[in-house]
Amino acid sequence: MSKEYTLRLVGEQHYEAACAAAAVGDRVLILRETHNPYDSKAIVAKNDAGDTLGYVPRESFVQDVIHEQGRGISAEIREKLWENGHWQIVLSVVVRAKPADVVRYKATAEERAQFQELRDQAKASRPAARRPPAPVRPPTLPPRPTKQADEDHGSPQRRPDAAVLLLFAALVAIVVAVIW
C-alpha cells in the first residue's frame, strides 16, 4: 500500500533555470547524493533531464524513509510558486510500501569537479583544528604522615584509646552537671 504526501523542496533559488522550465505534473527523481560536500545524507530532486530542482529538507520524513527504511519514493511536481523572488517547488511524493531497488545517480565529470571545488572551499574556510585544553585536575591533598615519618620527626602521634575517650566524656558530663 502506498501513501501520498506533500513535500516542499529547499535550495531552488540556486537552480532557477531548471525550476523555471519545470511544469506541474512533471516527474521528479529523488536521489541520494552521497558525494555532497556539505551533507553526506543529502537527497536531491532532479527532473527527467537530470537537472537539479532542489533538495529534500534535512528534517523531512523522506530522509528517514530513504535512509532508514530503504523504501522507494516517486514524485511529481504538484505546485510551482513564485515567492520571494524565486521559484518554490512543491512535490507530490508517493512512498512505496516495499523497499526499493537501489538506483544510484552517477555524477558527470563536470559535477564531480564542481563538488571537489566546493569541498576544497569548505576545507579552506574551516578554522584550523585546535587542540582541546588539558583537563583541569583538582588539587590533591598532601599524603598522610606515616608512623615512620612521625618517628623521623621525633614526635610520634598516637590515637587515643577508646577507654581514654570514655573517661574524657565522663569527666565532661560531670563538669556540665556541676555547673547546671
How would you portray this structure in words?
It is a single chain. Strand 5 and strand 6 form a beta hairpin. The chain contains 5 helices and 6 strands. The protein is α+β, with helices and mostly antiparallel strands.
Largest sheet, if any? 6 strands, antiparallel
Low-pLDDT segments, ≥5 res: none
- How much helix, percentage-wise, in residues? 25-40%
Order of helices and strands: EHEEEHEEHHH
Instruction: Name the beta content range.
Output: 25-35%
Tally of alpha and pi helices: 5
Class by SSE composition: alpha+beta
Average pLDDT figure = 77
Our Rg estimate from Cα atoms comes to 37 Å
The best one-word shape is elongated
What multimeric state do the chains show? single chain
Concise structural overview:
By secondary structure, this protein is an alpha+beta fold. The chain contains five helices and six strands. Helix content is 31%, strand content 27%.
